Amino acid sequence: MSAAIAAERPHATVEERFEYMLRLADTSLVAGQRLAEWLGHGPALEEDLALGNIALDLIGQARLLLALAGRIEGRGRDEDALAFWRDAGQFRNVSLAEQPNGDFGQTIVRQCLLDAWQLETYVSLAGSLDAELADIAKKAAKECRYHWRYSSGWLVRLGDGTEESHRRVGAAVQDLWRFTDELLTPDALDARMAECGIAPPPAAVRERWERRVAGVLEEARLPWPARPHYPWHGKRGVHTEALGHLLATLQHLPRTYPGVSW
Amino acid sequence: MSAPAADAAALRERRVWHTLESVADPEIPVVNVVELGIVRHVRTAGDGRIHVGLTPTYSGCPATEVIEQAVRTALDHAGLADVALETVLWPAWSSEWLSESGRRKLEAFGVAIESRAGAAPACPRCASRDVECIGEFGSTPCKAHYRCRTCLEPFDTFKCI
What we know:
The complex is a heterodimer of chains A (262) and B (161).
Chain A lengths: L2 H6 L5 H23 L8 H29 L5 H6 L10 H4 L5 H22 L5 H29 L3 H14 L3 H5 L3 H8 L6 H18 L22 H15 L6
Chain B lengths: L2 H18 L12 H4 L2 E6 L5 E5 L8 H15 L6 E4 L12 H10 L1 E3 L17 E5 L7 E6 L5 E5 L3
Parallel strand pairs in B: 2-3, 4-7
Antiparallel strand pairs in B: 1-2, 5-6, 6-7
């Protein structure tokens, strides 16, 4: 981008950039922690390994993004301080990420909806004017593409599988759909980040997400649900009850034994 | 930089590369970190310090820190304690970064390598192309799990994504 065009762009404040990084970071962290709950409980060894590996990728992304958020904030908080020493109201993940695992089908549906969003978001963020964020995004996009391959493959297999599996993932899609609007509808901060060239234009992400998800729902013989009416605001720190329980597990050890290492 | 200083810097950089070649990957110890393709650069900065750039295979690869510690230890032992380590995220690692010798060693070890995303690898045991993927995720984040339909043996494959 030429200097002349760059100069026309407004500059985001430190607070705005910090807040936006937390949205991305916390979504990966919380989704990774949820998937990690499957360890040792997967329906087959391969799925146990797969969910654990995806969890690792997500927590790795969260670590890079939280470290970046800490550097932007400039108050000496590193990725551990941000992950372990904030309470639920200070988390900025989208509400979908924190929803409980339910059965394997419900986890797959949640993951599929989230993978599509992360993938399209990171693909776009690869062009961010924030060079550090762009580097993290380019790597994360490759990983999310692979996660999507896994979750969408399973959604098709379950949706187009037995009567029982079809019924279960169908119910999960209906149940989790209410959280998708938050992914796709920009608030003032999303719009501001796009204006500053840090985040992608939200309309582009929505369009690509809808195309991607519509394709897989069709293949899985599942209907496209009605648009949800009630908006959720996890990315503004208003969470469902599920997040507090998740954080209790995630943060227990470092809060009980501050500074512990092994 | 004067010619003798440049020569000295080049010599030290070669020693660093040589030392890095002695650091085995902690999870697949038949290859070293140079062969694995995760050493992105060894270069002398303006202040005369050598900088080594390492890249993780995957964002969440649990071996990343172990590798960094192993590299640090090897450099310390080689008398190269003032080398600076830095993390490079882009270009991101993929199996295309494996060196030729790394590929040969991995295949001899029984790990196949995808030539491009989604392309079925050859069985490292009998070279058959009649293989099937039984898990998109294998024993480490960088591998998928396959089975050979000819010799019936399961094997790990370095993913190309």
